[in-house]
Amino acid sequence: MRVAIEPTRSYRLVNHGPVTLITTRSGGKPNVMAASWVMPVDTDPPRVALVIGSDSLTFENVMATGELVVNLPTVDMIEQVHEAGNLSGREVDKLQRLGLRTVDGSRVAAPLIESCIGWLECKLIRDDSMQKEHGVLVAEVVAAWADDEVFRDGKWAFGSTQKRTFHHVSGSTFLATGERLEAGTKAPRR
Ligand SMILES: Cc1cc2nc3c(=O)[nH]c(=O)nc-3n(C[C@H](O)[C@H](O)[C@H](O)COP(=O)(O)O)c2cc1C
Fold first, then answer.
1. What is the DSSP letter of 118?
2. Which ligand 1 atom is nearest residue 52's CA?
3. In principle, which of 26, 39, 89, 148 could form an S-S bond with 31, CB 3.0–4.6 Å?
4. What does the buried/exposed string (b/e) look like for 132-152 if buried means 16 or more CB atoms within 10 Å of the residue's CB?
5. What is the tens place of the pLDDT at every residue in 101-152?
6. Ligand 1 site: residues with CB under 6 angstroms?
7. What residues contact residue 72 under an 8 Å CB cut-off, 6+ apart?
8. What predicted TM-score, i.e. pTM, was given to this entire model?
9. Of the residues 22, 24, 36, 91, which should be mutated to test ligand 1's pocket, given the most ligand atoms within 8 Å of the CB?
């Protein structure tokens, strides 16, 4: 079930650097692209930084509307993520082509992808110096959500299911998010 996460705690959804799907909606038309260069940069106010190529439709949509959603896909969405990162919404309706169903966001017009397990609804901070100097967009997280089957007590708890995030290495190579480790607990004796 999708449950609300306090935005100041939303950094916990993306702290481990998973690949993401960025959704936008401009002129009524939704779009999706893959993005791995997304990271939390502040907790209060909650903020994320993103690098989004200036030639992409996503960049154009974000500039036009000031809104986006960071969606966290699962490993069984690898083909959809790969295609979302190798096609442009200028050429094709990617959400429809990839069979990605959406629900409305609560604070932004950009949609949430239903089959994902984490969602950050964001509003662009305009004219940020990072954007001017380095092409890094900074956005405030205005609402966040997680699937409580795998995000419990403020932490990812993936277990052994396919319902886990993954990471982009390069090209078509990815790594699934692995075992959770806790510091401060004694290693078992062998
Ligand atoms: C796994 C993966 C991760 C990607 N990460 C980024 C990224 O962080 N930033 C970026 O600008 N492009 C990234 N891309 C490329 C964009 O997704 C790609 O340019 C896309 O076609 C843009 O789509 P659009 O024109 O519909 O917005 C990535 C591609 C893949 C396959």
1. E
2. 11
3. 89
4. eeeebbbbbbbbbbbbeebbe
5. 999 999 999 999 999 999 999 999 997 788 888 889 999 999 999 999 999 9
6. 19, 31, 33-37, 51-53, 56-58, 81-82, 85-90, 168
7. 13, 14, 18, 20, 21, 116, 117, 118, 119, 165
8. 0.96
9. 36
% of the chain at pLDDT higher than 70: 98
SS (HEC) of 16-81: CCCCEEEEEEECCEEEEEEECCEEEEEECCEEEEEECCCCCHHHHHHHHHCEEEEEECCHHHHHHH
Ligand 1 atom index nearest CA of 171? 31
- What domains can be seen in the chain, in order of their start residue? 2-175 (2.30.110.10)
The per-residue pLDDT for 185 is: 75
Which tokens hold the place of 49? 């930084």
pLDDT digits (tens, 9 = 90+) for 65-109: 999 999 999 999 999 999 999 999 999 999 999 999 999 999 999
Confidence check: pLDDT of 186 > 80: no
Neighbours of 104 (CB within 10 A): 10
> Which pLDDT belongs to residue 159?
84
